[in-house]
Design brief:
The chain is of the alpha/beta class. Helix content is 42%, strand content 8%. It has helices spanning 19-31, 41-50, 62-70, 106-115, 127-131, 162-177, 187-218, and strands spanning 55-59, 94-98, 121-125, 153-155.
Length: 225
């Protein structure tokens, strides 16, 4: 299939790949009073997306109190365009998990994540969220939300200071700007692999538990997979 060449009176088709010609044309337009900016549409979309991130706050412990400081005048997270905290996952760009997550609470967190629109991101804030924190050896605490969700940014600390939260938010902005809005982004593929691996682990654990149960009943040695 033959591609049609663009037709502009002031430009020849071969000049579209000539950056010097385009820059000269822009300078002429700016000199005559016209405000012209030349760039890629993908970079414009990523710039707007990275600087208008709306969070869905899932706070369960002291990290949520630190997050409240970001909305006050001393820190003012509106400078980053992230002050619009939403109560609905369908209006949020990323979920910021702050605090201890128990196994009983994990299904609710996963449901909120699944209700978010694409593209969506996850920030794990605080030691309890990242690895379980001081409750790591507890039977009811999840040893890090990366066991149930694909995490994009980790914020260590117990709890992390507001400055550390800003740094984590800036890291997420850098990550968004490095991806492509129009194709070429394999985040969805990585998430699918994450949940497939998680389902396989759960299946293996169920098979292992069933084998242990049968071995206990029959008093036979357990065969390792």
């Amino acid at each position: 299939m033959e591609m049609k060449m663009p037709k502009i009176k002031s430009m020849k088709p071969e000049d579209f790949k000539n950056n010097e010609y385009i820059q000269k044309l822009v300078d002429e337009l700016n000199g005559s009073g016209a405000n012209i900016v030349v760039g890629k549409l993908n970079e414009l979309m990523q710039w707007g997306h990275a600087n208008s991130l709306w969070p869905l706050c899932f706070g369960t412990s002291c990290c949520a109190i630190e997050f409240m400081c970001l909305g006050a005048a001393r820190y003012d997270m509106a400078r980053f365009g992230a002050e619009v905290a939403r109560n609905s996952p369908r209006q949020a760009d990323y979920i910021m998990c702050m605090g201890t997550i128990t196994y009983r609470m994990a299904p609710a967190l996963l449901r909120l994540y699944e209700q978010m629109a694409e593209p969506k991101y996850v920030i794990a804030c605080g030691a309890c969220t990242v690895s379980g924190g001081p409750f790591r050896k507890s039977y009811c605490v999840v040893k890090g939300i990366d066991q149930i969700l694909p995490v994009d940014v980790y914020m260590p600390g117990c709890p992390p200071r507001p400055e550390a939260m800003f740094y984590g938010l800036m890291q997420l902005q850098r990550k968004i700007k490095a991806t492509k809005f129009f194709g070429g982004d394999n985040r969805k593929e990585k998430r699918e692999k994450f949940f497939e691996a998680k389902a396989a682990e759960e299946k293996d654990a169920a098979m292992r538990e069933q084998q242990l149960k049968l071995a206990k009943e029959s008093k036979e040695p357990v065969v390792e997979f």
